[in-house]
Amino acid sequence: MLCCVGDETCTFCNIKAAIGSRIVTETDDLIAFKDRSPSAQVHLLIIPKNHIRTVKNLDGGDVVLLEKMIVLGKELLRQQGFNPDDSTQVRLGFHVPPFNSVNHLHMHVIGLPFKNKYRSFKYRQGYPWYADASKVLDRLREGMSPL
């Protein structure tokens, strides 16, 4: 059963059939679910229901979608007792190709601490393999490319 409009071969487009029990919440545009290999105390993914390949494929027309993803991510972190505006407690961001594992846009929603040092390295801000969601949003609002 497809949850998204998009690619029938995409793991995340078929997510409801694959991991229905891990879904945390769903809106008209988004699905949030628990990561299958959590890197931290809280590790969720938020995906759009419309298939967007990666963060590199975002453009100015995706500002509202990205805003919704960030708002939902912060609300889910708040529900878990985190301050979503404290970067020492949380991460919201995207892996950048070729460092992403699934070619369907997915935002990592992470409540710290990380489970180990390797896991923290994957989500280190300011490195070429990880893009902070707020910075991507700021760039799109300014009419720039997402990265």
UniProtKB/TrEMBL annotation:
Tell me which residues this entry annotates as catalytic.
Answer: H106 (tele-amp-histidine intermediate)
Q: Which domain of life is it from?
A: Eukaryota
**What sections of the protein cross the membrane?**
none
Q: SUPFAM superfamilies in the record, alphabetically?
A: HIT-like
Per the Swiss-Prot or TrEMBL record, what residue ranges does the short sequence motif Histidine triad motif cover? 104-108
Occurrences of domain HIT (ranges) = 11-119
Alphabetized, the UniProt keywords read: Hydrolase, Nucleotide-binding
Instruction: Specify whether Nucleotide-binding is a keyword of the entry.
Output: yes
Cross-referenced Gene3D superfamilies: HIT-like
Write down the InterPro entries for this protein, in alphabetical order: Histidine_triad_HIT, HIT-like, HIT-like_sf
Task: Name one molecular function that GO assigns to this entry.
Answer: nucleotide binding
Q: Hydrolase among the record's keywords?
A: yes
> Signal peptide location in the record?
none
> What's the protein name?
HIT domain-containing protein
Organism listed in the record:
Mucor circinelloides f. circinelloides (strain 1006PhL) (Mucormycosis agent)
